[in-house]
Amino acid sequence: MRVAWLTDPHFNHARAAAWDAFIESLDGDMPEALLITGDISEGDDVVFQLSRLAGSFAGTIYFILGNHDFYQRSIATTRRQIVDACGSESRLIYLTNEFEIPLASDVGLVGDDGWGDAMVGDYENSPVRLADFQHIDDFRNAPPEGWKSQLQELGQQAADRLRPKLEQALERFATVVVATHVPPFREACWYEGHTTDDLWAPFFVCGRIGELLLETARQYPTRRLLVFCGHTHHGGTAALTDNLTVVTGGAEYGAPRLTGLLEIDDNTCRWSFAS
Ligand SMILES: [Fe+2]
Ligand SMILES: [Fe+2]
User: Fold this and answer.
1) Total domains in the fold of the chain
2) CA–CA separation, 62 vs 109, rounded Å?
3) CATH at 253
4) β-pair type (175-180, 224-229)
5) pLDDT in tens, 43-57
6) Stretches in the chain below the pLDDT threshold 50
7) 230 C-alpha vs ligand 2 centroid, how far in Å?
């Protein structure tokens, strides 16, 4: 089975020619499925873009959402709309809302949106404040003093959702592929070939998911965890332990293109970045 991986396409920034070029590029690799690790678009356009993809690509589309996908509404409203959209198109699979999915007899897939959860780095002294705070209702309608605890809560909720499905997948499969938007470790949070500093880390690392991944990787030493994420728009690979690798994909606004390819046989998943 071949799965085309795409992160941070931000389709709302892509002109028609860029969209067509992306769809054509899929034909070359002939993947059976697409895996999208968030920042598909923004607001209303997310559902439109997912439907458009489902209309242009014949395979299954596994995805999770990124912070931009929640713009112009609340997080809960967006998730509800996405679950509804998946209800009317069976090839759209929102992993945040699903249990583990077999890709082969011994390879499973799980996922969760994740969030930059202010658990790593120095939130208090950071001058960074993402546009998320202006564009997502949950933050826009809340006092800035409460933002840090909101981020922490979102990270905790993500880890709480992921834990049971990750544990179940590790019981069942030799290799577990994990899809999430925000890099779960500072070591996987790449920017121009370097990993993040204390000022950016609070918004670019999902610390709670990182803790969960490390804990479960140690608990299941004979299993292999392969994590795919995005959000930083800069690519890199980090081996956290012998059985836990995080692959972060790069991206460019206005030029959606394949991030990588996963080739899955009975019990392994080989992957490569797209050239
Ligand atoms: Fe992005
Ligand atoms: Fe993002």
Assistant:
1) 1
2) 9
3) 3.60.21.10
4) parallel
5) 989 999 999 999 999
6) none
7) 7
